[in-house]
Amino acid sequence: MLAQTRNEISRLARLMLGDRKANFAVMTALSAPVALALAAVAIDEASIYTERREAQSIVDLAAITGASNINNIQTAVVTTLTDNGMPNVVVQNAGQTIPAAVGKTVVAITPGRYTAATANVTQRFQAGATPYNAVHVTLQKIPNRYFASSLIPTPVIGTAATATMTPQATFSVGSRLLSVNGGILNSLLSSLLGGNISLSVMDYNGLISADVSVLSFISALSTQLNLTAATYSDVLASKATVGQIATAMANVPGVGNTAKLALQTIASKSTSTVKVPLSSLVDLGSVGSLGLGQTPAGLGVDASAMGMLTAAAVLANGTNQAQVNLGATIPGLLSTTLTIAIGEPAQFSPWLSIGQIGTTVRTAQTRIKLVASVGLGNPSLAGGISLLAVNVPLNVEVAYAEAKLTDITCPTGPSSISVSIAAHPGVAALHLANSNSSGFGDFSQPQSFTDAEIADVSLRLLLINIPLIQVMGSAATAITNNNPTTLTFNATDIANKTIKTVSTRNITQSLTTSLVSNLSLSVNLLGLPLLDVSALLGTVKPAVVALLNGVTAPIDDLLYNVLSALGVGVGQADVRVTGATCGRSVLVQ
Prior knowledge:
The protein is an alpha+beta fold. It is built from 14 helices and 30 strands.
């Protein structure tokens, strides 16, 4: 009986051990807490990842908005974050440390300057550098957690973004011709370009009033030079003669017939084979990377036909000097000879530039030596004194003028655009004296001046005329007070391509009159000083000054025409903005 009972128990045990149906329930019961914990962690991690992605997107948007409102960055960033669901935004200022907390968004906003050209990526954004064109935004917050708050440490979401907006403007510095003297301009261009340039006043007025699309000009020049260029910068990396440049300008759509014919005439008459580096004429900045035929959105790129032509003519003059013999074409002068020396613009500045804030364009430093002989009229003076000759040895030096792009703002959109240019006119120094000819073209050294022979006089003594009396003299004046002045161009000024002028000071006296009034004279006889010259000078000086005063107006006109044609103003800088855009804000980091 006992054995039978044991056998039954053994059989039942074997049956129980062989039946595994309940194992899954036990295993499920044992592993359920672990599975639930893992699921909670996975759900919360996925939620945190999604929230981090959303936070990054919102920070990107806030940085873009801040860069678009560079004058009101903090308000723009905070408003963007708040409008996109970021709770309780707190701005962490420089030097502060605000810990992230539940229900609070800590944001740090750092304006600065972004320079894409910097090779080291980490140094492209310079915090606090002005003028601002970028903003760096960092954000910290505690994410929402649903199931695993007691299982994992409290995480902090940290995101950052840098955005920049690159406003650009097209601007140039130079001088405009107000009254055109065709003879002077023809002589000047003929000397610079070779050949025989003979244009009428109407032709020059057509060139002065014509604007040329610079991008269309570069495309036409690419065809003219048979280049296989893909971008505008590819074309500007090459060289061209002034004849080729004038031909390309003539082929730009929209150029008036008068200007077109004048450009074609110059192209056919120019004999200069010197090739101009096109990058010295125009700097397109980032626009240069566009393909030929493409145009930048919202940015006009126009230039004066006359300004571009004369700038190219100056660059094409290999010696940087020109000799112009005007003969007796200037009223009151028996002969007139100009020697012109043109220096390199400081830091090799182009004549026209498309640039960001901080871009600078400059004119070339210029020297002019004018040697003229004045018509005498009635040469006989009182006391047996006669004038044999009166001369004007005039030297003019104009330092370069510059225009620096200092600000571009669009407070309420493109129609409110405002461009600020700091214009710095060139100082003019004038000497009525002899100059050292050997250093005339060396702009690294100042010129030296000595008394010049202003007049030759004959004196009748004891019935004998003594013709070898020289009246020597010199005078100097300068246009000084050379300070930069900020010029502001609004949307209307830019659309109308308005020229604004900043002067060193108001020039109320004529250039040469101010010299003549300060003229100091002395007398030499056969190279030896006369002992008593007061009576002689008392008679000679008023007559010499009167003759010189009679030719000051035409000489002033001559100087203004020559200098203006070279893009140089006497104590003045003419600035024109032909296009501007505040651009679009973009993420860079």
